[in-house]
Specification:
Length: about 375
């Protein structure tokens, strides 16, 4: 069988490794997750009677990453068979081999049957007990991948990197030969504009902990059904994502959820999506694009321009930091942004009071809503 694997060197290194634990560390867009899923396809075609477990902290995050990659790889190679796919259990069979996708947000899910191979996707989201319970029931190899956004006392640093039988595969965007030129240029531009983000996205190294803006966000299952107030924030984009964030406030606790996070949305497409959601509470949109806001208002949608006066960014951030805040588990992009959102760092290592303008679309949307609603602004045009 001839496979259509557009594989990077990261695929080869994982496939050839014989270490008990293979730790993939590096920046986003370096092919870590995709390469590991390609490798598992080869194993399922070559080996016999194996069970592969793909685990992540939450199910929505898993569906948006490794599970989606797995289905794409099957379809590209014309191997997908709906009869082999158990959608309710998130498992797939090839012959007498099985691959399963599980979340570990409920500890009981970790206590399962034995497996041949284990892959912990975004392993730094797990705690040590999650990982240990999975590892003890794995007979062959364990693969982990992560973006370097954890602290130096994390179990990845103290218990995994210190193992004798561990291979560490470090990767960056340069290891992805299929990355679009525009994205490469954007990443490389960080070298001259923000040293902290260059460390994270360019070099695939741990960012400066003191530069991170939000460290208090926690995950929740969903928005509360009962609440005191509901608002929305909208950050416009096209080549970059358009992000619409819903925020519910209950007992002075804030709950965030991403409703839209998509590129290449025209205003008419955006209006259609908002209308389908039947939103009635106020949307605070990026006031730097008043024409788009006017068009959305004329479509009958309750939208106001966000308050972006002098000092509003820092004041908005301070307001968010003062509130206990949860992000819904299915808000994958929003949660990723929250872990990377940081103060701009100059070439000499000075951390400024200005947030970095990179992968901040959901963060901006949420800030527009909270700061503007706090000020109870009135529209300056209709």
């Amino acid at each position: 069988m001839e496979l259509k694997l557009k594989a990077s060197e990261i695929f080869q290194r994982n496939y050839q490794s014989r270490a008990r634990v293979v730790l993939n560390v590096g920046s986003s867009r370096s092919t870590k997750t995709y390469s590991i899923m390609q490798m598992f396809l080869i194993k399922m075609l070559q080996e016999d009677n194996i069970v592969i477990t793909i685990a992540r902290k939450s199910l929505p995050s898993l569906k948006g990453s490794a599970y989606r990659d797995w289905l794409e790889i099957l379809n590209i190679n014309n191997l997908y068979n709906p009869n082999n796919h158990n959608k309710s259990d998130l498992s797939y069979r090839i012959g007498n081999n099985e691959i399963e996708f599980i979340s570990v947000d409920n500890f009981d899910k970790v206590k399962g049957r034995k497996r041949t191979y284990l892959f912990c996707n975004e392993a730094n989201e797990l705690n040590w007990n999650d990982y240990n319970q999975l590892a003890l029931r794995t007979s062959k190899q364990i693969y982990l991948d992560l973006n370097p956004s954890h602290s130096e006392d994390h179990w990845i640093e103290t218990k995994i990197k210190t193992l004798k039988k561990v291979e560490i595969i470090h990767s960056t965007y340069k290891d992805n030969p299929f990355l679009e030129r525009e994205i490469v240029e954007e990443i490389e531009g960080l070298k001259d504009t923000d040293q902290n983000l260059w460390r994270i996205y360019g070099l695939g190294e741990m960012g400066l902990a003191e530069a991170r803006i939000f460290t208090h966000f926690q995950l929740c299952d969903d928005l509360p059904e009962e609440y005191d107030e509901r608002i929305y924030g909208l950050d416009f984009g096209f080549n970059h994502p358009t992000a619409l964030i819903e925020i519910r406030i209950k007992d002075d606790v804030y709950y965030w959820k991403e409703l839209i996070y998509e590129t290449h949305l025209t205003n008419s497409m955006l209006i259609d999506k908002i209308k389908q959601m039947e939103l009635t509470d106020t949307i605070y949109g990026d006031s730097e694009d008043p024409n788009r806001i006017t068009e959305i208002q004329q479509a009958g949608i309750n939208i106001l321009p966000a308050d972006k006066g002098k000092g509003s960014v820092k004041l908005g951030i301070d307001l968010i930091k003062s509130k206990k805040t949860f992000i819904c588990k299915d808000s994958i992009n929003l949660y990723k942004e929250s872990k990377i959102y940081s103060w701009k760092t100059t070439s000499d290592g000075t951390i400024t009071d200005e947030p970095s303008k990179f992968n901040d679309h959901g963060m901006d949307g949420g800030r527009y809503a909270i700061y503007s609603n706090n000020n109870k602004i009135t529209p300056f045009f209709i």
